Amino acid sequence: MRVVMAEDDPLLREGVALLLGAEGLDVVAKAGNAEEALDAIDTHKPDVAILDVRMPPTHTDEGIRAAVEARRRHPGLAVLVLSAYVEQSFATELLSGGVNGLGYLLKERVGRVEEFLDALHRVAAGGTAIDPEVVAQLFTRSHQDTRLDRLSPRERDVLTLMAEGLGNSAIAERLVVTDGAVHKHIRNIFAKLDLSPTDQVDRRVAAVLQYLEESRRAR
Amino acid sequence: MTDAPAISKSKSTSTSTPPSVPPSPPRATVRETVVRTVKAAGAAIAQLAGGFATALLALGVLALLAATALTAPIGVGLLLAPLSLRALHALAGRERARLDRVGPEVIAPEPPPTRLRLALTDATTRRELRWAARHASLGLLLGFLGVLLPLSAVRDSTFPLWWQLLPKGGTSTSIGIGSAHSWLDALAVLPLGVGWIAIILGLSPAMARLQAEPGRRLLAAGPDIDLSLRVAELTATRAAALDAHATELRRIERSLHDGTQNRLVTVTVLLGAARRQVARDPDAADELLERAQSAAEHALAELRSVSRSILPPVLDDRGLAGALSGLAAECAVPCRTDVDVPQRCAASVEATAYFVVAEALTNIAKHSGATRATVTVRARGGRLQLLVEDDGRGGADEDGGSGLTGIRRRIAALDGTLRVTSPKGGPTRLEAELPCG
């Protein structure tokens, strides 16, 4: 898998590149700011671009804007955005154009190599990877929605993992239950939240995120 | 800002000043009345004497102004004009401070403009001139009486005790009419002294009020001077302070997120990579652990520098001068400090000054090859001026990772200015100016 990486901190950039290299990924270009990243993406047409959110010159949301721009130039490009902290508006802006092939993770998740590689592969394959923190924030902000209260604790866990972009078997593995149990939970969740049932992961993610987002706004 | 606490200055009510004598109880005893009257008279005399001193100065300033006006046609006056205007403003300021001490506060108007043409038509300057004229005439006379009356009172009321010691013919009353040749004559002077005392007790508070009146009226901000201007100015200053504060917080947030946090993320990334390598290639894993450790040490160093940059503890302990001489002592290049800052500045300003000098000295030690450095700090007109010089090879470059960018950013956050001159071959001069806040 060919990767373009943009991160302004040289030590961290080298660290992540080192890790990816050791895991057999091909880091074809490393960039220190958004403009370099866009150039590298144009040149190398990678399978996935990993972008830091805060980069020079303003250190605010360069990475998000670069991600949106890169996907405008190259529809279907997989982009994984790494952020120092979860900012709901970043997530909303990033995911507003669809969740296929998109990831939004906290930087420190990279250290959990196995899960990080999972997420990276999922995104590169057109799936989704949303940081649990994003989902948790959506949950806490929409806690006044009574329909969420109808969910059992286990169903909440499943909903969170679904929103993060995990498929049924991955959820089953995380929660150490059978695929069948997960399937049952998901049917219940969709019923309780009035969502139309679907098996496609990206549509599920979109549905869940949309639901959480709406219930947050409706408050 | 001329005098920051002007508006909210509180004043303790003193029983000794005439304007603020507490309301008399319904039936004051004779003793209380006497004590109060004597105290009031004493305070009034002291006030009159103080006013006498500023009245003499006012006379001097008026003479200077007259000389300026007279010599203006031949050019000398034009050179004298700024000096005499400054003298007038300084004296007016001194009188305001004096009146503040003895009564209700005199709210100062905007400081007058310093440019000659503007100053001549400035309302404040004109009011100060009118005050000077009155104070140097009526105020001087009242002040003179205020000094003379007590002397005469003492002299005449004690006259019978010592009149015989005087040479014949020189024994007159204090007003110079009549001379004493016998005990009877001498005793006759006594009522005169008692009269003086009565005048002092009865009239001196009114005289003190009369003497202070022009100052209270003319030196305060006039009705034509809109205080809303001052309010607007204070609001703007406060907004700027809040703004600087926000910028400072943003700087701290940024150095935490983009510096320290990135170091820690690097640590977790390297640890994660090492864990994956342990089974496959222990040597490679060990190398990764080594890098992770050094990244963690980096994180600690950055955390230290961030927290120091917020407010170096040494500033609280030893003040700016002490903190800077501490920096100079630690510097690898021999460094002399010369700090003359009479008052403490705002904490954020001192912290920035400290940071700037620390960074500059680090640069000098690392890059300049200098054999000596000097740090000069002055407070002038509400601004803190920093000058860091060395005799090194110069050529300091903002893009060379020399920390100059950081210095510039921190100074800009406080609305200060920075000038660096560093020609190839040296020497390097770093000049910074910060509002004291």
Structure description:
The complex is a heterodimer of chains A (219) and B (437). Chain A is an alpha/beta fold. Chain A folds into two domains: 2-130, Rossmann fold, CATH 3.40.50.2300; 136-217, Orthogonal Bundle (Arc Repressor Mutant, subunit A). Helix content of chain A is 55%, strand content 14%. In chain A, helix 2 (34-44) runs parallel beside helix 3, helix 6 runs parallel beside helix 11 and helix 9 (168-175) packs across helix 10 (179-192). The model of chain A has no long low-confidence stretch (mean pLDDT 88). Chain B is built from eleven helices and five strands. Helices cover 65% and strands 8% of the residues of chain B. In chain B, strand 4 and strand 5 form a beta hairpin. Chain B is elongated and about 125 Å long. With 437 residues, chain B is an alpha+beta fold. The interface between A and B is medium-sized, with 21 and 24 residues. Chain B: Residues 1-30 are annotated as: Disordered. Chain B: Residues 1-18 have a biased composition (Low complexity). Chain B: This is histidine kinase.
What's the gyration radius of chain A in Å?
17 Å
Described by the principal axes of the CA atoms, the overall outline of chain A is globular
Strand order of the largest sheet of chain B: 1-2-3-5-4
Number of helices of chain A: 11
Which sequence of SSEs, written as H and E, runs from N to C of chain A? EHEHEHEHEHEHHHHHH
Number of strands of chain A: 6
- Strand-residue proportion of chain B: 5-15%
**Which strand order does the major sheet of chain A show?**
2-1-3-4-5-6
Quote the CATH topology of the largest domain in chain A: Rossmann fold
Structural class of chain B comes to alpha+beta
How many strands, which pairing sense, and closed or not: the largest β-sheet of chain A?
A: 6 strands, parallel
Shape of chain B: elongated
- Helical proportion of chain B? 55-70%
CATH architecture of the largest domain in chain A: 3-Layer(aba) Sandwich
Binned, the helix content of chain A reads 55-70%
Instruction: Give the termini separation of chain A.
Output: 43 Å
CATH class placement of the largest domain in chain A: Alpha Beta
Terminal CA distance of chain B reads 9 Å
CATH superfamily of the largest domain in chain A: Response regulator
Low-confidence stretches of chain A: none
